[in-house]
Design goal:
It is built from 13 helices and 19 strands. With about 475 residues, it is α+β, with helices and mostly antiparallel strands. Strand 10 and strand 11 form a beta hairpin.
Amino acid sequence: MDATLDATEGRTTAAVALADTPAVPDEAGRAGEPRTAVHPAPCPPPPPVTSGAPEGDRPAEAAEVPEAAQASARTEAPGAAGASGAAEADAPVVPAQARPGGSGRPAEPAQRYPRPVVTELRLSAFGPHRSAVFPLGPLTLFAGPSGSGKSQALQAYEAMAALGSGATLEEAFPDPRARIPERAVPDAERRRGFRLGCTVDGPSGPVRLDLAVQAEPTLRIVGERLSQDGQILLATALRDPGRRSVQAAWLTGGAVGVTRAPLPDDRLGTALLPLRVAGSTTGQRQVLAAAEQVVVALRSVFPCDPRPGRMRTAVPPGEGRLLGDCANLADVLRRTRSECGTRHALLAEAARTGCAGSVVGLDVRIPAGGGPVTAVLDRGPGRPATELARLGAGELRFLALALVLLTGPGVLAMDPAAELLSARQALTVLADGFDRGLDRRQSAELLRLAQLSCGRGHIRLVAEVGEGTAAAARDLPGVAVVDLGP
């Protein structure tokens, strides 16, 4: 997928389409598009399970999709110019039919993931990114100069996670105009938008999800495609701009073949499929397995950006589940001290490295008659404890991020899939500004904790870091660094 920005005889169009066509950048794009370098982890992954032909032997995806499905996949909205774009938008939406046994594409070599995880982020036309593909491993760090799009990449991931959890487009993209590519010019109907997608691997194998979002003049999803192994399982297209719905079709199999129904244009159709598909046919079960795998992976995400200014105040006792801004850190420490002794001790050990002065442990103070909880650093016998309110911003961010790396979904304010055991889900932490305000010692300790937790499969981490942390991480085993820059 890519955005086509075309300058011909003074006319510029911006096409946002669900089609995997090569990028055709304009002169400015060739001169100024950022280049992406991915430094994979030095230690190789476990040997893949191979059961088919190599990548180069696979036929093109379009060759296995019926003509009607290809028409829906080429839907250009928003930004398609002229009558041809409108005609394609009204084309039938038909996913590929189930292939007879033994006649499909051979399975490609791939590592098997026992739990659903996002292994690739695609930003076809999103903010400063264009035709960008980012592989995501257990520990992935984005680095690059200011303005290279590090934060936008994490925000795209966070928005897709929110949509997978049932959020509306307005909730997932509070500022959609900021996501429109800078050179995207509105079409004759004043439409502009952006495109993004991801690949989720798991027990069902790799599943692709691609979205085309119209940001102007109305925020709406104008195209969505769920596919696996070149087969389209769900496809949606905007048929009538006057209605707040899209025409959807998903694979049914059997005598019916395809089921068609309208879906709301402000929510992710993939997340709605488990409520609409019965699972009574082989095709329906394939669609359900793919959709549920994507939803489980997207719901198992915890965006974290500690705000020291909100962490200094005493907080009332609550559930002890850490918020994304970590404002209730004191209450979470109260809970971990009483319920998670081992992890609390590990956090106290980390505090000895990341906090100035002598640190014996982490404690909390609760008034005798009840009231707000205050967290303190225990400085040892004969020394007064230090309230968290007196710590520096870097120390507070360090403590919060260390806690996140050492805990699990039960301690974080997130909504994982309740129908699956936690052992069947993989927590992914998104940390924008992972090393913001930290010194070299604190950054090194957080990297060490991240290596341990991600290496054991405890969590996955996708973070944005500065050049100093990226330089230190490039040679570390198990760490992949994505360099964004000229």
